[in-house]
Amino acid sequence: MTPARVRWLALVAALLVLLAGYLSLTRSVTILADGQAIKVATRAITVRGALDAAGLHLGSQDEVEPSPFSLLRNDLVIALRRAAYVQLHADGRSYGKLTAERELSTLLAEWDSSLGESDRVLLAGRPVSLEEELPYSPLLILQVRRAVEVKLDEDGEQKTISSSASTLGEALAEAGVQLYAADRLQPAPETRLDGPITATLVRAEPIEIVIAGRTLQLRTAAATVGEALAEAGIALQGLDYSKPADDQPIPEDRSIRVVRVSETLLLDLENTPHETEWQPDPEAELDSTSVIQLGQDGVRAARVRVRYEDGKEVSRQAEGQRVLVEPQTQINGYGTKIVLHTAVVDGVTIEYYRAVEVFVTSYSPCRSGVSGCLNGTSSGLPVQKGTIATYLSWYRALKFATIYVPGYGPGTIGDVGAYPSGDPWIDLAYSDADYVGWAQWVTIYFTTPVPAYVPLIWPP
Q: Which CATH number fits domain 84-145: 1.10.357.10, 3.10.20.30, 3.20.20.140, 3.30.450.80?
């Protein structure tokens, strides 16, 4: 064997020894794929082998750095960008390709699609910028949304906005037009921007609402009182009212008062006194009484409507009366039957048909309560013992009736005196020589014979 051949065989043997040693080594590498960092310990020789060991098999359009055939070394970082199917919808046309490209500007350029100043690209409905790298996904759907013109009238001031936002509210927000809860935007903020649009914005202004003793401060763009109350969640119910009325415009002082109104019905009960009638009872003794029919007061109910405003009574209105119980007349009977009785008075037996209690005073010709002396009486009887004076009405009914007065004796009603009204009263006549003063209550007796006319009701 020639020396050259020996040297060549020795070199090959050395290489084989080195290769065997290299293959027996375990290398630790990092794979960056799909936004994740994967640590892999492998005996693979190449980048492709490391990817296969990690379960990441290269597709035809995937991109890897370094190349798949590069030899592995310890702590190598492998960047894998796998291909995705990317669709682009723009201006009514659709484009699609399988690519590992993630630069949005590059993709748009490949499809000859450019963006205006206010245009935007949406990925799954989310705006993405030209500088943003698209995330990994097996399918990426992009949409170019072209800007449209929004003409806005804000409290009479005109402005024009170019926007590719999906809704009117988003377009205004992006243009720095802040909307408050009580502002009024027509059309509504959620209106989609599918083409040019004209909108009107009325800004809310402060108002105060006074209700139930409280003052609410809020903002509204309402044109009428009713609209403002509705926005505040305040409903006028039943008899409630507002000042100004709910159909009136918001007042200049921007103050609204709500009055809560309630009404109740009351029954005002009133007694109606019953009447009393008297009728003769021929079976009952004179001066006795009885109840033939018991009387009962009536009851009337007046319906009254009471009105309250904010809890305070402001009016009462009668709404007619109704008789609940009719009054019933009481019928009393008075006795008319004359019954004779006897009694021993002052040691004398007398027969009488009526006994009554009266207040007794006395008089004489010169003690009659007038200047001078009076000897005459209304009946012509002399002023002396046995003549009795009383009220004019009694005199007319009992003229010449005979009575017996205990302590005085028999007498005849024959004169008229002047007395305070109310008490039953008689005056006992004396002569000046035998005068006796009286001032006391006494039971007197009407004695027989019974006159032709006897008053049935006492006092007459």
A: 3.10.20.30
Give per-residue pLDDT as tens, 71-106: 888 888 888 888 888 888 888 888 888 887 888 888
Task: Say how far apart CA 414 and CA 400 lie, in whole Å.
Answer: 6
Q: Which of 97, 96, 106, 100 is nearest to 33 (CA)?
A: 100
Token representation of residue 80: 């894998």
Q: How many CB atoms lie within 10 A of CB 38?
A: 17
Which strands make up the sheet holding 330-337, listed edge to edge? Answer: 276-285, 330-337, 289-293
Global pTM reads 0.48
Which CATH architecture describes the domain 3-81? Roll (3.10)
Tokens of 100: 């590992």
Residue 438: its pLDDT value, please? Answer: 97
At residue 22, the pLDDT reads 47
Residues 423-440: tens digit of each pLDDT: 899 999 999 999 999 999
Which of these ranges, 207-211, 219-223, 385-389, has the smallest mean pLDDT?
219-223
Q: Where are the domains of the chain?
A: 3-81, 84-145, 148-202, 210-259, 264-332, 338-447
Q: Residues 6 or more apart from 438 whose CB is under 8 A from it? A: 360, 361, 362, 408, 428
What's phi and psi for 215, nearest 5 deg?
A: -115, 120
Q: What is the DSSP letter of 23?
A: H
